[in-house]
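ok trying this again, last paste got cut off
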Amino acid sequence: MTPEEPPPPTPLPAPSWPQRLRAAPVSTFLFACCIVVFVIAERSGSTKDVATLLRFGADSRDLVWKGEWWRLFTAMFLHIGVVHLVWNLWAGFSWTAPFERAMGPLRFAAIYLLSGLAGSALSIIGHDAVSAGASGALFGVMGGVLVIQRLVLGSWAALWKDPGQRRNLLMLVVWLAIGPFVGFDSFAHGGGMLAGAALTWAMLPLRAAKLVPAVLGLLLLIGASLHPIPGLHDEWIRRSELGSLLTKRDWPQVLERTASLATQPDPELAFYRAQALVFSGRVDEAVVLLPQLSGERVQTIRLRALVLYTAGQDARALDEAERGLALDPNDAYLRSLRVSAWVLTGDVEKADAEVERLLKLTPDAPDAIAMHGETLAATHRLEDALAVVTTLSAKAPERAATPRVRFLISLGRLDEAREALRAGPFDDAERAILTCWLEAVRGDFEAAALACDAVDVGHVEWARELKAAVAAGQEDCETARTLLAMPPARRSSRFGDALLGLCALREGDLGEAERRADASLAPYAKSVDGLMLRLAIAQVNGDDAAALTSLRGLEHEAAYSLLWPLLPEQAKQALPRE
């Protein structure tokens, strides 16, 4: 008789997900943070959109090196799309939960977070890309698991012989190898894995002799990621220096540093050189660079549109603006450029409709309100324009101050303009240029010249044309011509053409005056400056009736324009000031 065999043991049920989550509280908390950040970011925009990612803390070399070091930490809680989030959390939990139980909550949290920082740091050092995700921290956990398994099995050779661990090792190697080809951040993965392995080695058991070098190495890696490394990041350093020169509007230096484009095409350098050429008045050379300004980034499209607009190719500039707005419908610069192009071509209805759309999108944005005022003024609705900028003064006085003074001058309310000039929030250059404008409209060209002498024509909008008008008012048309030919001489302006036409008329060159009048009135036949030149030409020809008829309704604006003091006396009598 054989003894009775005991019954087989009843298998324990697999732990439920609530039980798993309670057994790994730190993992659960960290992954919950990832979900919360993802939901908030998605409600704000799209986590597949670079602007949204940057707003919520993604890694970016440019921004980290400009002082936003906290991105090394925040990037590990942000994910790019729902697939990225679900994959990281679902696959990651199978690694983090057992690792947390093995290491304990505090050591696990330290390894996870420090591995994430190391991954972000190596990502910054290794490549120039916007990146986000918990992968660096998760690879740190994987590196830690391998170290534990190596300690359990006794050697790396034993680890390799174990089928399960060999499979894990091969998976990690393949994952790191294919990363660059499929869009994964292998720098973050590799940095996280090395940090996790080193920290786990130092903490099992926890000994200062091992922990100190591991932490110091990690700190060195993070410190190295906070600034560009000479020799390794020379291209970024060069680009950063060019960007700084652009901000300072040091066009000669930008042009000097991008001169190599003549022999070696480089889209990056072309981007900087084209801007410098536009603002140096060398628009034709900027147009030649357009084939190198390829790509569908909104920033590049903006530049292409600017080059074309400045070259007077309004139709092509509008096409580029449409392309950019298809990518970012709220891009204020492209909308502003589109409005300017439509105003210049006389398509007032389209310009008005565009401004209305912008105001609906951003009803309280100072730039949108200011653009509305500028559009109204450009289409001779000065009272409405003044009302708009007066309203804007309550929200953004610094944005409304300059156009308010200009509109008051154009309306002939010179005393109010002088008072606003005294009270407004102007910097020295703005105050000088507006004082120059006011005195020139009054006809006091000596006072105007004194104010204008303080203004750099290369750094202040419309300063060049104003100085040219003052020179012409002092009977110096040669200086006026020189000024109008100086940078930033971009597209031909109606005012500049009309001013040069008046100078030609003074010198008896009627043909040149006629040509300038045509240029000033094309394609927008309601240019006050061009119509005033036409009036002066008509009077020389003995017939000013037609010119006066075309100015009907715009007499008051014409009488307080910069050109009025420069008109022949007979023309001034035809357009008397009130």
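PB: full thing came through this time. The chain is about 70% helix and 0% strand.
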